[in-house]
Write a structure and sequence with these properties.
With about 55 residues, this protein is mainly alpha-helical. The chain is rod-shaped and about 75 Å long. The model has no long low-confidence stretch (mean pLDDT about 85). The chain is about 70% helix and about 0% strand.
Amino acid sequence: MAALAWLLIPLFAALGAAIWASWTARNRTAGDVSELAGYARFREAMEKSHSGSGVV
């Protein structure tokens, strides 16, 4: 029975590694459009001239 336990440990580790690899390799392009739009808004805000006291 102890030998079976020692054989199951690497099996579970390999299964966990396969699940982790499939999770990290998933397609995440659905959120790119909103992220790019947010980045464009950020750049527009940074390009605007500031009407302040001139302090940087």
